[in-house]
Structures are given as structure tokens and as C-alpha cells.
């Protein structure tokens, strides 16, 4: 697989022009997670209406895969309930990216999901430390 | 074959065979020193001096020792131009410093440290000097007697040997006084119910069935390197490094870390504009070029450089100018893809 296949237009576009990047003041829940092995660091902010996500933003630094994945995941999470978010699986994220992700880059792709689930767990009164990498 | 390998390796660094202990890797060697030398010789309030350039393997074992013994851990600063400052090292040595442990060459910056001088300074302060030679032994000639270091460690897999084999060198007088590290068969002379008599050097520190194939493999690697000639290896790497540094500095928005070619080994860390090292490594991988990206087992050094991660290209005897060209071409493609 040519690595250029990984950096398809969609991913590079999301990396350069993310639609959900930012900080939400007075968020109903937020979480922060990083992949210290490489320096990807992500924060996700949720504003809720009842138990549904009304607004969602991410902020942080990281590689193109982690940033694109965060932007795509934010789009997916909008309108979902906290329970639906907790039920999201790694396959859902990989489908969003739409390109094969090697084992080496898996954590880059899944950082957003872990962080998002941690934010949901916190709001649901669960221990965010219990959220695994997939 | 096993013992003749030991002799070869002793000769490689100008030591005697009984001063060569086989371990799994440099990391295990440092742990051995921390336990068997540090254990009896470091007490509450003593100091262990390291440097900001160190690999995790030359930091974490000392953290454990310092925590166990309530000793202090300090770090000599990296100076201008990514070198190791002798001044700060000398200033940080004090009466309480029992152990000074430092790298002979940085795996991130390539910086070659003034080992002989640092050993002298350590001895003047009454400390033993431990040299992490993992990035040095494969690349240039090492004479432990000339350096007068008390201990040195290096790994086989970094010098064309197999994985799972490394070497600890220790001055005979020191090794003789040190208690065993791992215990069991082979490191004993006689075993009674409640105590044992330990074996002579170096076997006292080699418990259990050794990594026989690893030792023999390392011996073969040393033969090969000696045939090439360590000074030939050094000049080959220096010319590749010089060329690579020229090529890399012509790329847009590239940050290079490390001193000029004559003061370093062929490990070159760099960052390409705002592109994350993981992305750079992925793209050049697709072009058939293998670099490493990340913190290179040197997180504290990364914080000194002000970054979380870097890309690193390194060269050895099997690389040539075409490889440098391939690297430069792949990096140019990367800058285009990320519109730098």
C-alpha cells in the first residue's frame, strides 16, 4: 500500500481545514487524552441537550491521522446520545477514515474515540480510566 | 567458540576477558551496575549525576536506585550547539556524587561527548564513571583503558549482532567487590543449603544458561567490524552525515537538531515544518525510506528541545550516498504533500 493512499484528499483536508476544531466555554463535559509515545494530545468538549450531543469541539495537537479522525468523529457524534457514544467501536472510526490504518498508526486514529468516550463516561458518572484504546 | 567471542570483544575495547560480562543489552548492563555497584555504595543523601542527553535506559535505573536509597539525581545540561557542557558537568559534581553516568554519543542528537574528560572530572570528585557506549561502540573505536572509565555498556543489535546480547565492561577491582546481580547456576563455585560460594569473574555475573548463539553472533559481528576497520567506519559515516545535513538544510521549514558532522555520529534528528513526525515517517516509508519518529526513548531530552517528537534518520556501514538522496527526495515529496 502506498503511503500516499493513507493521505487521501479527505484526510488532508480535514487536517488543514477542520470543521469542529475549537474550545467550548461552559461545556457540559470534557476530557483530555494523549498518546505520549508521539505527542498527539486531544481535548474534546461536549454541550448537551438532555442526553444528546448538541455541540462538540476538539482541540489539541497531533499528526494528520489523529486530527482528521477527531474532526470526522465530532461530525459523527453530533446528535448522538451519550449511551450511543459509549457504544461506538473502533470499526466505526476506521470506517469514517475510509483508508486502511496500519497497526503502527492505530492509536493515532483511535485517540479521538478514546477521548470522546472518556467525556461521555464522566458525564454518565462512570470512571473515565476504564475507557480502553478500543 | 563462546569464550573466544568473549576474548574478541575484550580485545575490541581493550579490556581483559574477565572484565567482560555478557548481558541481554546495554539496558540490562546499566541495571546491573545500579543494583550491584549502586546498592552497596550509594546511601541516603548521596548524589548520582546524569546528563540531559540520556536515553531512558540511562535514567530510569538510576531513578529506582535514588528512590530506594533516598539519594539525589541531577542532570548536567546540554550546552549551545547541542553539545554536552563540561563546565556544568564539573559544577554539578560534588562531594556526595558517588556515580556519574553519561552517554558517549547521543542517540537523538548524535553528539559525541568528551568522555575522557568527563571520566577525569568524575574521578577528581570521587565518583565512579559509567559510560553508555550503545551509540559509540558500533561507530568508532573505544579504548576503555585509555578512557579509564569504571564501567561501560553496549548492545549487540546496534553493531550488526543479534538481539538479546549486550556487554557490560567493569574494572576488575570493582567487579570483584560487587555482589551478584542474578543468581543461580553457573555463577556459583559451590552451593550449600544456606549459602553459596560465587564463581570467579566474569561468571559471577552470568547466571543460568547464557545466550550462547547471541554471544557467538556478537563475536562474528566484531570480526566483521574489525575487518572493515573502525576508523574507516567513522570516516564513511562522517561523509554521509555531512552530505545528509547539507541536503536536509536545503528543505523548506526544516529544523535540524545536533552539532556539525565532525562532532557527531550519523544519527540525525529533524522536524519538517509543522508536519508531525509520524506523518513524515509514514510518507517516506511509502517511498521505501525507513526513518524513526517519536521521542526515541529520550522524553526528558525532547522537553529540552521543546518538542514531543522528532524524525530521525541514521546511517551505518551499509548505507551510501544513494540512500541520502532517496531520503532527500522522499522528504521533498512530503513537503509537497503537506504544502510546506
Beginning-to-end CA distance, first to last residue of chain B: 55 Å
Q: Which spans of chain A have pLDDT < 50 for at least 5 consecutive residues?
A: none
The average pLDDT score of chain B comes to 97
Largest sheet: spatial strand order of chain A: 1-2-3
Unreliably modeled segments of chain B: none
Largest sheet: number of strands, sense, barrel closure of chain A: 3 strands, antiparallel
Fraction in helix of chain A: 40-55%
Oligomer: heterodimer
What does this structure look like?
The complex is a heterodimer of chains A (134) and B (340). Chain A is α+β, with helices and mostly antiparallel strands and 134 residues long. Chain A has 6 helices and 3 strands; from the N terminus they run H-H-E-E-E-H-H-H-H. Chain A has helices at 3-6, 9-16, 64-77, 82-86, 90-97, 106-123; strands at residues 29-35, 40-49, 52-61. In chain A, strands 1-2-3 form a 3-stranded antiparallel sheet, with helices on one face. In chain A, helix 2 (9-16) crosses helix 3, helix 3 crosses helix 5 and helix 3 runs parallel beside helix 6. The longest helix of chain A has 18 residues, at 106-123. The radius of gyration of chain A is 14 Å and the shape is globular. Chain A starts with a helix and ends in an 11-residue tail after the last helix. The mean pLDDT of chain A is 91. Chain B has 340 residues and is an alpha/beta fold. Chain B is 40% helix and 18% strand. Chain B has helices spanning 2-13, 26-41, 60-69, 86-92, 115-124, 144-147, 172-177, 212-228, 230-249, 277-286, 299-305, 321-337, and strands spanning 20-23, 47-51, 72-76, 97-103, 128-132, 151-155, 166-170, 188-191, 196-198, 254-257, 267-272, 292-294, 310-314. In chain B, the strands form 3 sheets. Chain B has a 7-stranded mixed sheet with strand order 1-7-6-5-4-2-3, with helices on both faces. In chain B, strands 10-11-13-12 form a 4-stranded antiparallel sheet, with helices on one face. In chain B, strand 4, helix 5 and strand 5 form a beta-alpha-beta unit. In chain B, helix 1 (2-13) packs across helix 8, helix 2 (26-41) runs parallel beside helix 3 (60-69) and helix 9 (230-249) packs parallel to helix 12 (321-337). The longest helix of chain B has 20 residues, at 230-249. The mean pLDDT of chain B is 97. The A-B interface holds A 1-7, 12, 16, 36-41, 61-65, 105, 108 and B 275-279, 282-287, 293-295, 299, 307-309, 337-339.
